[in-house]
Design a protein that fits this description.
By secondary structure, this protein is of the alpha/beta class. Helix content is 38%, strand content 16%. The chain has a 6-stranded mixed beta sheet with strand order 8-9-7-10-11-12, with helices on both faces. The longest helix is centred in the N-terminal third of the chain and has 14 residues, at 77-90. It is a single-pass type IV membrane protein.
Length: 353
């Protein structure tokens, strides 16, 4: 009787003719699970012949979501709160990082382990190479931006449930169209994509890893197959925490065309090697062909500035080229020492404003 009273108090049609309705029955078991009494629900399931094998319907795994052109997907407060509580649950030694075994345990309810070793070079890790809470939330942010269906699927496997009858969509925000943000000169987005483009050997990989405060020496110790094309971290933009995603885009030849999805971004970073006289021509041509007529902000990065700069074999030198096209002068960068955050903050600020 006490249970029926609880159901009646929370679900208007949970009890009928002194008996639990389906809605009442489901609410009751949700309550058991939320209060940690999982075995009560499993006992009922086994009583009716069910075993531990659970298959979730596609409707449940992939609730329909509409993402208009120019919009993006981000986690909201409910999503981050769920992920944080999950992290804290499996961080058994409370060291604010997940060991390989703790990570396996966290994803034990999923069909496969979704994160490979490259993830550890996409986000922040501790001195042991274990993913920290900051890195863990950043990786989920990256997933949600690039592959929302995968986030929805794994939220379902991990047991996300909002309030009431909410599904995984209550953890997601679909942002306003970028065009409207530009018109209004303000944005509520928290995640920005920066495409890092340049010739081979210009130092794009070390520049991207610099977002994670890694030096050239540290990057050289990473096996190529363990490097990711994406790195992501948080930065302060005018006092607000924002995520910056760097996407390393490698084009082997100056005549190779960029695909539309390789051009479209919130800010473009064109990287050249100051010690190579042929390097700037490549990025100058990329700018003229793909970005000069767009509203996408562009920053040229004069990489390897610890080396002797040489005159570039191009009609304009980098500074005069930027002046002519009314874009910021090249920003010098070197990963020979601890990379400075200012260049990444500048990119995030250009993307936001």
């Amino acid at each position: 009787e006490e249970l029926k009273t609880v159901v009646q108090r929370n679900v208007s049609d949970g009890v009928h003719a002194d008996s639990l309705t389906l809605r009442g029955f489901l609410f009751l078991h949700r309550l058991f699970i939320q209060r940690g009494r999982h075995e009560t629900t499993w006992t009922v399931l086994r009583k009716f012949g069910y075993n531990d094998n659970l298959q979730l319907s596609k409707d449940y795994l992939f609730p329909p979501i509409r993402i208009p052109p120019g919009c993006s997907t981000e986690l909201n407060h409910a999503g981050y709160s769920f992920l944080t509580s999950l992290f804290e649950k499996y961080d058994n030694d409370k060291d604010s990082a997940l060991s390989p075994q703790e990570l396996i345990d966290l994803f034990s309810t999923c069909p496969v382990m979704p994160w490979g070793p490259d993830v550890l070079n996409s986000v922040h890790t501790n001195e042991k190479g274990w993913i920290t809470l900051q890195g863990y939330l950043a990786q989920w942010t990256l997933w949600t931006l690039l592959d929302i269906q995968r986030t929805l699927e794994y939220f379902a496997y991990l047991g996300y449930c909002g309030s009431g009858d909410d599904n995984q969509l209550s953890a997601i925000t679909v942002t306003r169209e970028k065009r409207i943000d530009l018109q209004k000169k303000q944005t509520m987005r928290n995640v920005y994509q920066c495409h890092v483009i340049g010739p081979r050997d210009a130092g794009k990989t070390t520049f991207c890893q610099g977002l994670l405060s890694r030096t050239l020496e540290e990057v050289q110790d990473i096996a190529p197959d363990r490097l990711s094309r994406h790195t992501i971290s948080t930065l302060q933009v005018y006092g607000q925490e924002k995520y910056l995603v760097l996407h390393d885009i490698d084009v082997h030849n100056i005549t190779d065309a960029l695909m539309p999805n390789e051009v479209q971004c919130d800010v473009a970073c064109l990287v050249y090697d100051v010690s190579n006289p042929k390097s700037f021509e490549y990025v100058a041509r990329i700018y003229l062909k793909y970005f000069s007529e767009t509203s996408i902000p562009v920053l040229f990065v004069a990489n390897k500035s610890d080396m002797s700069a040489v005159r570039q074999d191009y009609i304009h030198q980098p500074v005069s080229f930027c002046h002519k096209h009314k874009i910021p002068p090249p920003h010098t960068f070197s990963s020979a020492v601890q990379p400075k955050k200012d260049i990444y903050t500048k990119l995030a600020t250009m993307a936001a404003y």
